[in-house]
Amino acid sequence: MNKGVYIALFSIGLAQALKIPIHLIKKKEFRPELFFQTGGMPSSHSAGVSSLTTFIALKHGIPTIDFALSLIYGLIVMYDAQGIRRQTGELTLKVNTLGELMEKIHKEESVEFKEKKPKKLKEMLGHQPAEVIGGALLGILTGTVGHCLTKKDR
Do the Cβ atoms of 44 and 139 come closer than 8 Å? Predict the structure, then answer.
């Protein structure tokens, strides 16, 4: 595997790990399972693609096809992380709330109603814009540090 992939994977892991202390500071709640969940601050999607794009820019230069591909791919990923996936998460919140409302309605009825209870949908799918920016900044930092640490003339 090449160094860019290692740096991007490290950046993703670092972003996931940082979610735990950030959540602890914000909510006063220790939740180590956040390491394995999507959403939250910082965006690991943004961190991964930003670190790879930064590494490529520093190693090969901005006027290369490698940089262009990585930049466009990264912008799509970050747009998706805060746009489409966030909207899906908000829709999921409404669906879960509707399910809870239906339960309350059915409990008040005298007619017995049997229905298989579906699993509650995961609500935290996407990112707020600040979470995407936080991940992008983390990625730029890790991409820069990774490039400096892997230079051949060290």
Answer: no
Q: 99 and 27: one domain?
A: no
- Cβ atoms of residues 39 and 82 within 8 Å: no
Longest dimension (CA), the chain: 79
pLDDT digits (tens, 9 = 90+) for 42-94: 989 999 999 999 999 999 999 999 999 999 999 998 888 877 766 676 677 77
Q: What is the dihedral of CA 140, 136, 44, 125, to 10 degrees?
A: -170
Domain carrying residue 27:
1-83+127-154
Instruction: Compute the distance between CA of residue 88 and CA of residue 101 in angstroms, rounded to an integer.
Output: 20
Distance in angstroms (rounded) separating the CA atoms of residues 19 and 37: 9
Can you give the pTM of this predicted structure? 0.72
